[in-house]
Design brief:
7-stranded antiparallel β-sheet; globular; alpha+beta
């Protein structure tokens, strides 16, 4: 009888342990399902934060000459009208090498991302002894190791870059040089000079300047 009683006790303990294990597994399954549901819900919520237009990884930017012209205009601190502005999108390196994984020498580059980069001149200017009339121009280049060929083109309001030499207005060769800076984001801006302003284009450790006289 003692042996039978002991066997019965062992059987009851075994059944009890199996029941506990089943409850734990069921609880774990429910918890995992809940976590998965929460994750999916979070992803769905994240994707619907802005259902109209996602944020572009290459943000659009504008540079003016004079610098910050709209701000100065609104604060009545301007005594001269604007001369030029450039509208462009700003790609970034993201760990990539500029002329190995992003750009290629001797191939046209839009000087930015997304829509074609655009230079607007509010007045007539002179670039390398060429008279350039006021207006809007697509701005792109053909990079080489020691120089960039900067091109003004009339195919405005376009996306990307499909070069059409028949619509080129002017071409300018300018030196490209290495600097001690390493810029993550491509940058275009105007820098004042004694004869007007340089259109400065810089990315990674390279920069090129297009002198504009006015």
């Amino acid at each position: 009888m003692k042996i039978e009683g002991l066997g019965l006790l062992v059987l009851l303990l075994s059944i009890s342990c199996m029941s506990c294990k089943n409850r734990e597994e069921k609880s774990s399954t429910v918890s995992n399902a809940s976590n998965t549901k929460d994750s999916l819900s979070s992803l769905k919520q994240e994707s619907t934060v802005n259902p109209y237009a996602p944020v572009d990884i290459s943000p659009m930017d504008i540079s003016y000459y004079p610098a910050d012209y709209p701000v100065l205009k609104m604060t009545n601190n301007l005594t001269i009208p604007p001369v030029a502005r450039v509208v462009y999108s700003r790609p970034h390196l993201q760990g990539r090498r500029l002329f190995h994984e992003l750009l290629k020498y001797d191939e046209p580059w839009r000087l930015g991302a997304n829509e074609a980069t655009e230079l607007q001149l509010y007045r007539d200017v002179t670039i390398q002894n060429k008279k350039i009339k006021a207006g809007r121009y697509v701005l792109y280049c053909i990079p080489q190791p020691a120089k960039w060929t900067i091109i003004l083109n009339s195919n405005i309001d376009s996306w990307g870059l499909k070069p059409d030499p028949g619509k080129d207005i002017a071409r300018f060769d300018i030196p490209a040089r290495e600097t001690n800076r390493h810029l993550e984001y491509f940058t275009i801006l105007f820098e004042k000079t004694n004869t007007g302003a340089d259109l400065l284009m810089a990315w990674d450790n390279l920069e090129a300047r297009l002198p504009i006289n006015f």
